[in-house]
Amino acid sequence: MNRIMKPFVVVLAAIWFLADAIFSTIAHPLARWLGERWVLFRLRAWIRSLRPYSALALFAVPLIILEPVKPVAAYLAATGHVRSGLIVLVVGEILKLVLIERLFSLNRDKLLSIPAFAWAYGKYRLVMDRLESMEAWQMVRRWSRIARFSIRSTLAQLKASSGLPTTR
Fold first, then answer.
1. Which residue, 48, 50, 62, 111, is the most exposed by fewest CB within 10 angstroms?
2. How many whole angstroms separate alpha carbon 46 and alpha carbon 80?
3. What is the pLDDT of residues 23-58, one digit of tens each?
């Protein structure tokens, strides 16, 4: 039974990690932008003041609440509500990754001082490093950069031709 189930579990885990990796390309810039907002200064100060295990508990909240988004989205898509499933998946994943990114960046040293967290993070980084080193991943990243550059160039040309001020 173990031999039969192992390939399915590996494929499911790979899809799970791949979805997180894809959404993180959107979430990282959004998290950085959010981190620069002065409105959240007090909240950032409070989060940074937490002790390691309190920081871990806070870090776990978005995971516990938002990780079930993937199966819910899959259920919605399987029952014929593809658009709703896609919206739930995109919004939930981006929200989860933005919150996790910000919480981790604010308390990285404290979280990594917890041995079990440091071990799990090390395993996560091994998987992500392997995924990011794959030729297919690098090709998709190149295409993404080219697409972003093309969109920005086209928007800049449209703004220039319409006489609207450009921001940068």
1. 48
2. 44
3. 666 777 777 777 777 767 888 889 999 999 999 999
Output the DSSP codes for the chain: -HHHHHHHHHHHHHHHHHHHHHHHHHHHHHHHHHHT-GGGHHHHHHHHHS-HHHHHHHHHHHHHHHTTHHHHHHHHHHTT-HHHHHHHHHHHHHHHHHHHHHHHHHHHHHHHTSHHHHHHHHHHHHHHHHHHHSHHHHHHHHHHHHHHHHHHHHHHHHHHHHTPPP--
Tell me the pLDDT tens digit for each residue of 92-114: 888 888 888 889 988 999 999 99
- Alpha-carbon 55 to chain mean position: 19
Residue of 30, 37, 101, 26 whose CA lies nearest to 63: 101
Tell me what the pLDDT averaged over the chain comes to.
Answer: 81
Contact, 58 vs 47, CB < 8 A? yes
| Number of C-beta neighbours around residue 138 at 10 A | 11
